[in-house]
Amino acid sequence: MQSSFADIILPLALKGRLTYSIPEEMQEIVRRGTRVQVQLKDRKIYTGVVARVHNDVPDIKDIRPVMKAYGSDPVINDRQLDFWNWIAAYYMCTEGEVMKAAVPAALFPEGETNVPVVERYRPKKETFVELARRFSDMELNEILDSLRKAPRQSDILTAYLYLTGYTADSEIKALRKSYVLKKSGSAPSHINPLVKKGIFKQLSLEVGRLSYPENKTEQIRDLSNIQAVTYDSIRRIYKEKDIALLHGVTSSGKTEIYIHLIDEQLKKGKQVLYLLPEIALTTQLIIRLQKHFGNITGIYHSRFNDQERAEIWKKVAADDPGSGYRLVLGARSSIFLPFSNLGLVIVDEEHDISYKQHDPSPRYQARDCAIVLAGIHKAKTILGSATPSIESYYNAERGKYGFAELKERYGSIRLPSIILANSREAYRKKLMVSHFTPELLNSIDEALSKGEQIILFQNRRGFSPYIECSDCGWIPSCKQCAVNLTYHKSIGRLVCHYCGYSISVPHKCENCNSSGMVTRGFGTQKIEDEIKIVFPSARVERMDQDTTGSRNSFNRIIKAFEEHRTDILIGTQMISKGLDFENLTVVGILNADNLLHYPDFRAHERSFQLMEQVSGRAGRRQKQGKVVIQTSDPDNRIIRLMLQHDYQNMYRSQIEERRAFNYPPFCRMIRINLKHKSRADLNSFADILGNDLKGMFGKRVLGPEYPLISQIQSWYIKTLLIKIEKEKSLAKAREMIRAALDRLEKEKGAGGLRIGVDVDPY
Ligand code: ADP
Ligand code: ZN
Ligand code: ZN
Q: How far apart are CA 739 and CA 746, in angstroms?
C-alpha cells in the first residue's frame, strides 16, 4: 500500500514528530527507519529519521514535501525506534533529544540553508587476503610442496592457515593483509605471486579505524567449583526470569562468569552488550575479553570522535558474523547502538552513579534503560556488583529479579583487613602529619620498605562544606529530610538541599554545648604535595579529572603503576573501579567523613559502595591487603559495617531509612530545574509553578529552593522536587506535570526561562 505522509524525528528538542508529504517518486523508498532530508519553517535543512508512514491527512495548511530520501534501507531499526519512544516517554523528553544522544552526527548531517547535504561519513577501506577458493588437504599439500623453493610465500600461506585455523570444511576467512605480513615477517611484494598463482585473492573491505587483535588467542578458562555453582544458578534463574542480580565480592570472578555467559550467547548467534562505567573500561579488561572473543569485540565510549562512532555503529548494524561486532563493551551511551539481535545485556558495577546522565536531556539511567532494551529484544539481563544499589537488591529481595551470589574471592584470597584511624583523636593529640594519621603513615612506610605499592583515595565529589562540632562530632541536619545541612559561605547559612529549610550557623553544639563548631571538607590536590614532603623518595602520581584530560594520560598513569614505576597513586573515584594491580597492598581512604556527610539521601549507600570498591583494589593476588580508613567518627554505623564487609546489614539499615523518610525505592522522584537570568523573574516563575503543582500534588511537592550550585554563569537556578508514591501511576503524574509546564510556558515573559525535567534524578 502506498503512504502519502511520513512522521519524522529530527535530532532537535522539538516536541513531537513532524509530518511531511512523500512525493510520488519517493513512495517506494521512504519507510519506517529510513533517512530523509526535510526543510523546517526557518528554511534550515535537516536529516531525520522516518518514525511512521501513513495516510492520515494532517491538520496543517501547507504541508511540505520530503526533500530527499537516502535509500530504502532503514538505518534505525524498529527496536531502536520503540526504545527511543519509551525513553522519551519515561524521561519526559522528546524523541529528537533521544535521537541526538543516540546517533553519531555523521550519520545525520545537519544542512545549511539551501546547501545540499553531503554525507560526512566515509568508511575506511583496507586490503584483506583470503584463499582464492576452497582447497582440499591434498591440494594444499601440493601447493606447499610447490612453494618449497619460495620460502617467503610458503611462510605467508602457512601463517594464514594457522591464523584462520583453516580446515578443508571450514569457512574461508579474510585476514588483513598487513596482519598476515606482520605475522609471517614478509613484505607486500611476497603476496603478489600467490595472488597470480590463484592461491590467494585480495579484497578491499570496510574496516574500523581502530585496530584490534585479529583473532582469539586464548581459551576460556574453566570456572572454579564455587563459580560453576553460581553460573548454574544463573542459568536456572533464566528459565523463569529475565533479570538476574549477581552479588559477588570484589575479585570473586564475576567477569569470568560474564565471559561464560557471553560465549554461550555468541555460540547461539546472538549479540551481547556489556555495559561498564566509562572509567572501568580499562585496557586491562578490553584485552582480557579480546583474547577470548577476538575481533568481533567492539568498544564504545564517549571519548571516540564522531567519525569513529559512526564506524562502530555500522559494524554493530552489519549483521554479518564475518565483519560485524557481536560483542560490544561500552559505556552508558552504547545502549543506543543498532543492535538487531541481543541475547544478553550485562550491566557490570550496576550500582555505579555514572550510568545516570544528568545533562543534557535525555537524563536517562542506562542500567534501567538496559533492562528495557533487553526486554525489547527478549534478551536476558545480568546486573553485577560487589555492592548492589539498594533498588536492585530490593528488587531481588522481592523476587522481581533472580539472585545469585559469589561470596569468596577467587583463589580464596581473603578480603583486605581494615584499620580505622581516628583522625579527631590524632588531631587532638597533635599526632597528625598534615592530613595523615600515624596509622596510615606507618602502613605506607611499611609497604614502601617492602617494595609494595599504595593507593590513596580522596573523594572527588567536590567540596560540600558542612559544620561539625569538633568535640562530639555532631553535625546539623534537616529534621524533615535526614540529610546534612550544607554550609553556604556567601549567605552565612546552613541549607537543606531537598526542602530548602535553612538556619543561621549555630555557634554552639546542640549536643554537648561546646563552642568548637568547625567547617569540614578539605580540598584534594594538596594531598599530593604533602605526601611528597613526607616521603621524599617515593614516586608519587595523581589521577583525577585534571591529570587525565585524555584517554592516553589515563592509560599512561595506570601503566606506570602497573609496571611499578609509581609507588604511591593518589586518586579520586577513578581508581575505585575495575583495576587489578598485582603489587598493591595498602589502600588509604583519607577522609571517610566527607563521603558520609554528603547531603544526599544516598550518601551512606554511596560511602559504603565506594569504600568497599576502593578497598577491593588491595591484595587481589597472593597477599591479603590492608585498608586504612581515616575518620573522625569511628563509631559511625556505616563504617562499622564496612569493617565487616557487611553489605547485608548496610542494606537493611538503608532500606528502613528509605521507608521511614519516603525515598526510592518507596517513591519515585521527579525534579524540575528552572533557570533564568533574572533572579526576580526566576523566583516568581518558580512560585507560579510551585503553586500549580502543589494544587495537584499537595505535600508531595518540595521547594522551590536553590540547589547546591545555585548559579551557573549568568543563570540563576531553582529546583522543585516531586515525590510520587510507588503505587500511584507515574504516567498520570508525568501527564499532570507536563500540563503544568505547558501552562508555565504560556505565562508572560516565560521566554527567558529554561526548564529541565529529571525523572529519577539520582
Ligand atoms: P571480579 O570481576 O569479581 O572482580 P575477576 O573475574 O576479575 O573478579 O577475577 C579476579 C581475578 O581472579 C582475575 O585476575 C581473574 O583472572 C582471576 N580468576 C577468577 N576466576 C578465575 C578462574 N576460574 N580461572 C582462572 N583465574 C580466575
Ligand atoms: Zn558537640
Ligand atoms: Zn530538608
A: 11
